[in-house]
TrEMBL record:
Family to which this protein belongs: Belongs to the FNBP1 family.
Annotated protein name in UniProt: Formin-binding protein 1-like
Compositional bias per record (Acidic residues), positions renumbered to this chain: 511-520
Subcellular location: Cell membrane; Cytoplasm, Cell cortex; Cytoplasm, Cytoskeleton
Stretch list, region Disordered: 288-308, 460-520
Signal peptide location: none
Domain called F-BAR: residue spans: 1-257
Gene behind the chain: fnbp1l
GO cellular component: cell cortex; cytoskeleton; plasma membrane
InterPro entries: AH/BAR_dom_sf (IPR027267), F_BAR_dom (IPR031160), FCH_dom (IPR001060), HR1_CIP4_FNBP1L (IPR057871), HR1_rho-bd (IPR011072), HR1_TOCA (IPR057870), SH3-like_dom_sf (IPR036028), SH3_domain (IPR001452)
GO molecular function, one term: lipid binding
Organism per entry: Sinocyclocheilus rhinocerous
Biased composition, class Basic and acidic residues, residue ranges: 460-503
Length: 594
């Protein structure tokens, strides 16, 4: 029994509450660490996240994977915030509330114990006072008895003195008897209260304190478990974040990145053709070997060194100056032909000049990184861009203008409907108040139509040049082996001598006027099967799933994109390398390529 250890139990219960609050402080510091960690992770993600628009973002798989890792890391930091929040509400907050409840309960039990102890002390004081009173009365009675006996034995004492001493003795004896009875009652009461104190009240208070301490211990165990459960609940989501990072790492594709680089910087210009050989020795009298090709001379028969040097200096090479030939390799010699077997064709210097001019224009139109970085001014018709890039930008601009036009048309229709409602119900509003807005909308529609027509003309010009260049290239392939052919400035071969001094063909300005007036869908020229999935995030592209079958309505024009149509009628462009294409026999033969 520990009925006499009230003070020690008081100290132990106080220690238990202090320990609980100490653990609560530990949890608070832990959640503050989690909050700081999550905040720093979010700051890190924000620091390395791109700050440009989505159109300016690089499309390389390495960059996309890194951004995916940043997103997963951002989600991971969110889970750390969840851990901190759960610890704050379910552990730290619960511990602090329970600590307050324990303090109030402990205070109540200790007050009950002190009240019981005070009541027992009060009973003991009453008993002790009655005991002391009984002791005093007994001593006074004994003293009165001695006086009475002394006077009763004294022969000189009068009868009245003896009677007085006797009455005093009776009085003291009576008071002693009353004190005795009071002392006995107080003693019995004290013994009863003391038994109740040590056998009922104190054990009950100690039991309450014991229950309180056991509940505190159980609560600590629950909080330990909750502390671990908070971490364990976010482990699956954190695992998914880490798996997402691993998946992003696996999605890095070096071949696709290289293809994106090629697609981004592809100019659309054709490679320069071979320079024609110009024979200036036709009017020279051959002496010795007639099959040898003589050096060009002037009218007087002498070579013009300035003309030769100038022609060498002005020769334009694709990547700058002509590379020097190592001295160990001899220069190639000119072929000799037997006399009478070689008929040198006549070439015009004007065609060479046109060819060189075209190469210079092509070189000047290729944008450099330095020009882009410095923010060079762009022309409205985008003529500063290469043909393929210009075509894409113009198409994108036309799509955006069409969207704006559709918005204006919808707004005009809505205003007209509102005007009709106002005309039928004048109490709802004045129809004339809508006329300025309708006029403004119609004016905006006319401006947008003008812009669309202008951009469509530029687009038709680009596509016309691209088509004529492709036709000329195919013509060159067909006539490459033609005998006694002549190379034109555009790289094709012709037998027509009258074309030597002709200027390049000019496109008809009205050739493509009716190109965009036809709204009928393009016929399918084949079908394709998706080898990979494509998200279609760019404007004009089409979302495609793996193994999906699509209709081909326009072949790849050399830019790496094929125009297709879905079963539901949705059209758009997809990467040619992502699909397996089969063209119909009645269109261009049964051709299958990947």
């Amino acid at each position: 029994m520990i009925y006499d250890q009230f003070e020690n139990l008081d100290k132990h219960s106080q220690w238990g509450i202090d320990f609980l609050e100490r653990y609560a402080k530990f949890v608070k510091e832990r959640l503050e660490i989690e909050q700081t960690y999550a905040k720093q992770l979010r700051s890190l993600v924000k620091k390395y996240c791109p700050k440009r628009s989505k159109d300016d973002e690089p499309r390389f798989t390495s960059c996309l994977s890194f951004y995916s890792i940043l997103n997963e890391l951002n989600d991971y930091s969110g889970q750390r915030e969840v851990v901190a929040e759960e610890m704050g509400h379910k552990v730290y907050g619960e511990l602090m509330r329970y600590s307050q409840d324990l303090k109030a309960e402990r205070k109540h039990h200790l007050q009950e114990g002190r009240k019981t102890q005070q009541y027992l002390d009060q009973c003991w004081k009453h008993m002790d006072n009655s005991k002391k009173k009984f002791e005093r009365e007994c001593k006074e009675a004994e003293k009165s008895q001695l006086i009475y006996e002394r006077l009763d034995n004294d022969i000189n004492a009068t009868k009245s003195e003896v009677e007085k001493a006797k009455s005093q003795l009776y009085l003291r004896q009576h008071m002693a008897e009353e004190s005795k009875n009071e002392y006995a009652a107080q003693l019995q009461n004290f013994n009863s209260e003391q038994w109740k104190h040590f056998n009922v009240a104190i054990p009950q208070i100690f039991k309450n304190l014991q229950d309180m301490d056991e509940r505190r211990t159980v609560k600590l165990g629950e909080m330990y478990r909750s502390f671990a459960e908070v971490e364990r609940r976010v482990i699956p989501i954190i695992s998914k974040c880490l798996e997402g990072m691993v998946t992003a790492a696996k999605n890095v594709d070096e071949h696709r990145d290289s293809g994106i680089v090629v697609e981004s910087f592809k100019s659309g210009f054709e490679p320069p053709g071979d320079f024609p050989f110009e024979d200036f020795s036709q009017n020279i009298q051959r002496t010795g070997s007639d099959g040898a090709i003589g050096t060009p001379k002037t009218e007087g028969g002498k070579a013009d060194p300035k003309h030769a040097v100038g022609r060498t200096k002005n020769k334009l090479w694709l990547f700058g100056k002509k590379p020097k030939i190592p001295p160990s390799i001899p220069p190639p010699s000119l072929p000799s032909f037997p006399s009478g077997h070689f008929h040198p064709p006549k070439f015009s210097t004007e065609r060479i000049a046109n060819h060189l001019s075209e190469m210079r224009n092509a070189k000047s139109k290729i944008p450099s990184f330095r020009t882009v970085k410095r923010g060079a001014p762009t022309l409205e018709d985008l003529s500063h861009l290469p043909p393929e890039q210009r075509r894409k930008k113009l198409q994108q601009r036309i799509d955006e203008l069409n969207k704006e036009l559709q918005k204006e048309m919808d707004q005009r229709d809505a205003l007209n409907k509102m005007k009709d409602v106002y005309e039928k119900n004048p109490q709802m509003g004045d129809p004339g108040s809508l006329q300025p807005k309708i006029s403004e909308t119609i004016c905006n529609m006319e401006k947008l139509r003008s812009e669309i027509h202008k951009n469509e003309s530029w687009l038709a010009e680009v596509e016309g040049k691209h088509g004529s260049r492709s036709e000329r290239r195919s013509s060159a392939d067909v006539n490459h082996h033609a005998p006694h052919g002549r190379e034109s400035p555009e790289g094709s071969y012709t037998d027509d001598h009258s074309q030597e001094h002709r200027s390049p063909p000019q496109p008809d300005p009205h050739e493509f006027d009716d190109e965009f007036d036809d709204d009928d869908p393009l016929p399918a020229i084949g079908h394709c099967k998706a080898l990979y999935s494509f998200d279609g995030s760019n404007e004009g592209t089409l979302v495609m799933k793996e193994n999906e079958v699509l209709y081909v309505i326009e072949e790849d024009k050399g830019d790496g994109w094929t125009r297709v149509r879905k079963q539901g009628g949705e059209e758009g462009y997809i990467p040619t390398s992502y699909v397996e294409i089969t063209l119909e026999k009645n269109s261009k033969g049964a051709v299958t390529y990947i």
